[in-house]
């Protein structure tokens, strides 16, 4: 954690008063479960809090930035910014993937680069930062990390993988594309869905996400990667 603390200070001028909050934010459930006797806290509760803080600050930014946009357009823009894949990208931008504590199984399966884990990690960090230093500091951090990307219009070009997959498959004639939820895991406030895509009743790919829509997009992205 000391290296992470040095990086946060150098890159963002952030110094945690309560280092245990930072450590909890970077502790995945798989690590905590493998060390149950040590009674280690994991980051799910901080993720829950960070998600709420992020939604508030991005909503406030969009409300001020686009005074003539309707509610539906603002909601669409917000969903593009705070979606799992985007948040994972911000974690990578900050170098957070190097510091997350994972269980051995999760580490071996490539969890350190998984969008679900890195997106949750970013939200957990925001939750920890909010508890340690308040809303203004979180807002300043987002102004450094997220807002410049928004201003560049990067999130106005987010791909709709489902539409892309449909267009690709239909070049081969009429096909039946069916998205099915095949698994759910996690507590009620932090569900993870796994969706499988069936084309003419044959499974072609799977994807996971914090909502059914995100899982569908992840599955469609995986299918496109295979076909292209």
From TrEMBL:
It is found in: Cytoplasm. It is an enzyme of class 3 (hydrolase). One of its GO terms (cellular component) is cytoplasm. Gene3D superfamilies: 3.30.160.20, Ribonuclease III domain (1.10.1520.10). It holds the Pfam family dsrm. It comes from the Bacteria. Its cofactor is Mg(2+). It catalyses: Endonucleolytic cleavage to 5'-phosphomonoester. Mg(2+) binds at residues 47, 120, 123. Keywords: Cytoplasm, Endonuclease, Hydrolase, Magnesium, Metal-binding, mRNA processing, Nuclease, RNA-binding, rRNA processing, rRNA-binding, tRNA processing. GO terms for molecular function: double-stranded RNA binding; identical protein binding; metal ion binding; ribonuclease III activity; rRNA binding. The active site is at 51, 123. Its EC number is 3.1.26.3. Residues 160-228 form the DRBM domain. One of its GO terms (biological process) is regulation of gene expression. Residues 1-134 form the RNase III domain. Digests double-stranded RNA. Involved in the processing of primary rRNA transcript to yield the immediate precursors to the large and small rRNAs (23S and 16S). Processes some mRNAs, and tRNAs when they are encoded in the rRNA operon. Processes pre-crRNA and tracrRNA of type II CRISPR loci if present in the organism. Homodimer. Belongs to the ribonuclease III family. HAMAP family: RNase_III (MF_00104). This is Ribonuclease 3. It comes from Streptococcus pantholopis.
